[in-house]
Amino acid sequence: QVQLVESGGGLVQPGGSLRLSCAASRSTGSINTMGWYRQAPGKQREMVARITSGGSTNYADSVKGRFTISRDNAKNTVYLQMNNLKPEDTAVYYCNLAVFGSSYWGQGTQVTVSS
């Protein structure tokens, strides 16, 4: 059983930057994938970025070149650096851990991009 806690969301202007963090309550295991997903009101959850325990990454086309996912295995933490934010990035961002055939989710952090 793992708890995930996100932080770093907020209100920013278009073109601004935010860095999200997600800390796991314990070791995430030897083989796992951590990622960030987002969900806007009335829309389905979508994958934003994922990173494996080996460091392989995958991004949604809409964020390529703007967002960077990284992780610190020693701290059981995953990060999402978001640059050049756009209004369409507005959503609740959720941290995810996929391990042992199960998915764990954080509580979410709100990101709002508006003038």
Order of helix and strand elements from N to C terminus: EEEEEEEEEEE
The end-to-end span amounts to 40 Å
> How many E-type strands?
11
Tally the helices: what do you get? 0
Biggest β-sheet: count, sense, barrel?
7 strands, mixed
**Broad structural category:** mainly beta
The percent range for strand residues is: over 45%
Low-confidence stretches: none
Shape annotation: globular
Percent helix? under 10%
- pLDDT averaged over residues: 95
Can you describe this structure?
The chain is mostly beta strands. It is built from no helices and eleven strands. It has strands at residues 4-7, 10-12, 18-24, 33-39, 46-52, 57-59, 67-72, 77-82, 91-99, 102-105, 109-113. Strand 5 (46-52) and strand 6 form a beta hairpin.
List strands and helices in order, with pairings:
Elements: E1 4-7, E2 10-12, E3 18-24, E4 33-39, E5 46-52, E6 57-59, E7 67-72, E8 77-82, E9 91-99, E10 102-105, E11 109-113
Parallel strand pairs: 2-11
Antiparallel strand pairs: 1-3, 3-8, 4-5, 4-9, 5-6, 7-8, 9-10, 9-11
Give a nutshell description of this structure.
The protein has 115 residues and is mostly beta strands.
Descriptors:
single chain, 115 residues, mainly beta, four-stranded antiparallel sheet, 53% strand
